[in-house]
Write a structure and sequence with these properties.
Layout lengths: L9 H7 L3 H8 L10 H7 L4 H10 L9 H6 L2 H30 L5 H37 L9 H7 L5 H13 L6 H42 L2
Length: 231
């Protein structure tokens, strides 16, 4: 595993994993970065370079587990900003694109089949929106307050861990319907495109969850403990 570094050219990261184009977009980094290194490009956008590398490693290497020193150097606010931007991307872009692709795919299906598929999709979208709303309305404001030295006695990162649910079950059901049960009249090329899109979204969401569970949670635990020591 050749992990990325802040001294690498940003273009070299993209050559290793083109999926990082989406990460750059969510971080607000333009593709017109020339020959800049990660460190130089991040400085232009006021983004912590070590935190950016941490996120890129998660999206590139399976089961990536960052060193404790890298976790300590990461900027929590940049991680929260990235997660917030990802939520917006999933709801306003990824699911909209997926809905358009599904609509084209199931055009030949009978109305009964269309209703079944749209119900699966609608249920999944509702579940995802509810999942993100919890984080946007409770978790992220809590973390922001912690970074200001304030501690909400009615909440903790442990409560988030207890309530953090799996968000890919219904997406997996939708994937199986497309792959196994749609009638032969559905265009095979479109079916493949929809499946590819679902698999890609599934992987992206898994890495998003990895950042929340294995990076944000431990860092916030540390911030909580530090605030307790200061009392």
């Amino acid at each position: 595993m050749n992990l990325f570094s802040t001294k690498m050219k940003l273009s070299d990261l993209i050559d290793v994993n083109y999926n990082l184009i989406g990460v750059l977009a969510r971080m607000g980094i333009s593709l017109s970065f020339g020959e800049k290194t990660v460190e130089e490009a991040c400085a232009n956008y006021d983004i912590d370079a070590d935190t950016f590398i941490l996120i890129c490693n998660v999206y590139t290497y399976d089961d990536y587990s960052p060193a404790g020193s890298l976790m300590e150097e990461s900027k929590v606010s940049d991680i929260v900003n990235y997660l917030h931007s990802s939520h917006s991307y999933y709801i306003t872009t990824a699911l909209v694109d997926l809905a358009d692709r599904i609509e084209e795919l199931i055009e030949p299906c009978e109305d009964k089949m269309k209703k079944v598929i749209w119900k699966f999709f609608s249920d999944y979208k509702t579940e995802l929106e509810r999942h993100f709303a919890y984080e946007e309305n409770l978790l992220f404001p809590y973390v922001d307050e912690l970074l200001e030295g304030k501690r909400n006695p009615d909440y903790s990162i442990h409560k988030f861990e207890e309530s953090h649910s799996n968000i890919d079950e219904k997406l997996n059901d939708l994937k199986n319907i497309v792959m196994k049960y749609l009638p032969a009249e559905c265009d095979n090329a479109r079916r493949g495109q929809v499946l590819y899109y679902i698999y890609h979204l599934e992987d992206d969401l898994a890495r998003h969850t990895n950042i929340e569970d294995n990076i944000l949670v431990p860092i916030v635990h540390r911030v909580e403990k530090n605030l307790e020591k200061q009392k």
